From TrEMBL:
Alphabetized UniProt keyword annotations: Antiport, Cell membrane, Ion transport, Membrane, Transmembrane, Transmembrane helix, Transport
Compartments, record wording: Cell membrane
Lineage: Bacteria, Bacillati, Bacillota, Erysipelotrichia, Erysipelotrichales
Superkingdom, natural source: Bacteria
Name of protein: Probable multidrug resistance protein NorM
Keyword Plastid part of the UniProt annotation: no
Similarity comment: family membership: Belongs to the multi antimicrobial extrusion (MATE) (TC 2.A.66.1) family.
Origin species: Faecalibacillus faecis
Length: 447
């Protein structure tokens, strides 16, 4: 199932590799979306607001682990393209223990500062009880998130995007079944939704770990200390930490916006909770395509295939922009119908606020599509620091504008929604200018 992306048709290689990744990440989104849907329909708007705010927080926590895994995955892809078997094993061993340590620290910190979150996120008193109960359980799943994303990143780095999809499909189906059972049958409330998610996460995390150890000799290096070298840890850090910073800065900005949203009350919180799920689900395919594109570029960068890199870049831009135009049209036309999936039709105030959000964000998905390609490109070319720069510009603009515009009475919460596409556009402009100016240096194959 491993795919060598340095050979064959460029367009076909990217498509065949990216489709399982897209389907897999859409299934991963189902973990929290199913929670949101069931909670919103059966437990009411306060419970929906609590799960929605929890989703934003967990996205931030997950982004730290995901960033480390993605950065390591880019390094794995380069080693795979170079046919450097020994280097790949040593990088796998070093990255596994490094990210496992970070995961442990992250889990401990999450519990220590749990009670402070209500203040940081401006969570209303009537929502905090459900949110705290949900988070106490959901934090148990953080190690499972590490296991799945680490081994999925490795498998995708060597061209195997199908196995991560299979494990996610199984766990997503289990999550839906357990959600319905714990929330509706056993009436365990938001805690039941959290239990269902954690069980499903461990199924996919442990399952893909066992598969990877059995099927991939290189992965077994994590059980052999002779493959652990500090110089490799340094290399892993140089790739993964900057990607981690990029991912966490991006989601920290979103978390800060969540706190601002919460200050507008339960109605806006509930609208944002539902709309942001639709938003994330809509552009998730282009985000995953950006990650697949990054693996394609990294393998060819390791193999020093300059022409395939340039050809892949052109094909990726055309595919990504075409998809964004289609999905933007769908979201803008069916915004109200999409909101009623999560919200009872009688909650007209919540639905209308959510529709306003979706029509503003949805019209500019080409902006985020271009940004995901730029993130993937710079990560694959060994320049993850540039991804951090783009994220700072994108999220910095978003956060500043959100607070400034929303403080103007005539604009209010709508200012938060408009700050997002403006941030995307600024980051895109900077990323494209940098590529045009540094193209020769970027393709010098100095790794």
């Amino acid at each position: 199932m491993n795919r060598d992306l340095t050979k064959g048709s460029v367009l076909k290689s990217m498509l065949l590799f990216s489709i399982p990744m897209i389907l897999g990440d859409l299934l991963q989104q189902c973990y929290n979306i199913v929670d949101t849907l069931i909670v919103g329909q059966f437990l009411g708007k306060n419970a929906l607001a609590s799960v929605g705010s929890s989703f934003t927080l967990m996205t931030f926590i997950t982004s730290i682990i995901l960033g480390l895994c993605m950065g390591s995955g880019a390094l794995f892809s380069i080693r795979y393209g170079q046919k450097d078997e020994k280097g790949l094993r040593e990088d796998v061993c070093a990255s596994f223990f490094f990210i496992a340590l970070i995961t442990f620290i992250l889990t401990v910190i999450s519990y220590i500062f749990l009670n402070q979150l209500s203040v940081f996120l401006h969570v209303p008193h009537e929502v905090w009880g459900d949110m705290k109960g949900y988070l106490i359980i959901i934090f148990i799943g953080i190690p499972a998130i590490f296991l799945y994303n680490y081994f999925a990143s490795y498998l995708r780095a060597i061209g195997n995007s199908m196995i991560p999809l299979i494990f996610l499909a199984i766990s997503a189906i289990l999550n839906i079944i357990l959600d319905l059972f714990f929330v509706i049958v056993l009436k365990l409330g938001v805690e039941g939704a959290a239990i269902a998610t954690v069980i499903s996460q461990y199924l996919s995390g442990i399952g893909i770990s066992i598969y990877s150890l059995i099927k991939n000799i290189q992965v077994r290096a994590i059980m052999k200390l002779q493959y652990f070298h500090l110089k490799r840890v340094h290399k892993v850090i140089s790739f993964s930490v900057l990607t981690c910073i990029q991912q966490s800065v991006m989601n920290l900005g979103i978390l800060m916006v969540q706190g601002l949203v919460n200050s507008f009350g339960t109605v806006v919180m509930a609208a944002f909770a539902a709309a942001v799920k639709i938003d994330a689900f809509a552009y998730m395919p282009v985000q995953d395509f950006g990650n697949a594109f990054s693996t394609f570029i990294a393998q060819n960068y390791g193999a020093k295939e300059k022409m395939r890199i340039q050809s892949g870049l052109k094909s990726a831009v055309c595919l990504s922009m075409g998809f964004c135009i289609i999905i933007s049209t769908i979201v803008c036309i069916f915004a109200k119908d999409l909101m009623t999936i999560f919200i009872d039709a009688k909650e007209t105030e919540i639905i209308m606020e959510g529709v306003k959000y979706l029509k503003i964000e949805g019209a500019f998905y080409c902006g985020i599509g271009c940004l995901f390609l730029l993130y993937g490109l710079y990560r694959a070319l060994g320049k993850p620091g540039m991804s951090v720069v783009l994220t700072i510009f994108s999220l910095g603009t978003r956060v500043v504008l959100a607070y400034v515009l929303s403080a103007i009475p005539a604009i209010g919460v709508t200012g938060i929604w408009w700050s997002v596409p403006i941030g995307w556009a600024l980051a895109d402009l900077i990323g494209l200018i940098y590529y045009r100016c540094k193209k020769k240096e970027l393709l010098s194959f100095n790794i």
